[in-house]
Amino acid sequence: MQYPSKHIEKAVEEISKLPGIGKKTALRLALYLLREEEEDTQALAEALVELRTKTQYCRDCHNFSDAPLCGVCASHRRDRSIICVVENPQDVIAIENTAQYQGLYHVLGGVISPIEGVGPADIKLDSLIQRVIISAAGENPVKEIILALSPTMEGDTTAFYITKKLGPHGTKVSSIARGIPVGGELEYTDEITLGRSIISRTTYNSNGY
Q1: d(Cα 43, Cα 8) in Å, to the nearest integer?
Q2: Counting beta carbons within 10 angstroms of the beta carbon of residue 149, is it exposed (0 to 12), middle (13 to 18) or buried (19 or more)?
Q3: What is d(CA 209, CA 189) in angstroms, rounded to the nearest whole number?
Q4: 39-75 per-position pLDDT tens digit
Q5: What is the pTM of this model?
Q6: What is the tens place of the pLDDT at every residue in 122-178?
Q7: 3-state secondary structure string, the chain?
């Protein structure tokens, strides 16, 4: 593809690195930005730089945050006796949008997948166990862990491992109801189904669901 400007070519190359965007779409976006007011393009550029340089991970739940503690972990209105375990920050957003859950979260940052070489040590499992142990010595012990993991083989493997690790601590472990299609991704589930799954969660044990 021939470009009238090296600056346009560079912009297209960078934009096309984004998932789901090919060279033609990248070119349309680059030309759109070129036609916009300079301050609008500058605002977008600044927002992207701040996104990369100022976004951090919550020290407790590992969700995206603007501060050491995310808004959920810092809130006194949340039920601190319940922790919902999810794979990634997108799942937190999906569950929050249902307005059916008022507890805390724990973002694993992945799931156990032996085929891909991802083991328990590669995700945030140890910090989850530590949260349960530390809370037991305080005023607000964790009474329930909700496993809100995608119903895939990897998700089930991770859920089984978490249940085994939490067994000695006597913490109730439940799972969101299987209203979510088997093999489906949590972040793409509609809000009504996801909300009902949270409300109708079931107890999880070492024998499975």
Answers
A1: 18
A2: buried
A3: 20
A4: 999 999 999 999 999 999 999 999 999 999 999 999 9
A5: 0.79
A6: 999 999 999 999 998 888 899 999 999 988 889 999 999 999 999 898 899 998 876
A7: CCCCCHHHHHHHHHHCCCCCCCHHHHHHHHHHHHHCCHHHHHHHHHHHHHHHHHCEECCCCCCEECCCCCHHHHCCCCEEEEEEEECCHHHHHHHHCCCCCCEEEEECCCCCEHHHCECHHHCCCHHHHHHHHHHHCCCCCCCEEEECCCCCHHHHHHHHHHHHHHHHHCCEEEECCCCCCCCCCHHHCCHHHHHHHHHCCEECECCEC
Place of tokens 């794979």: 87
Identity of the amino acid at 156: D
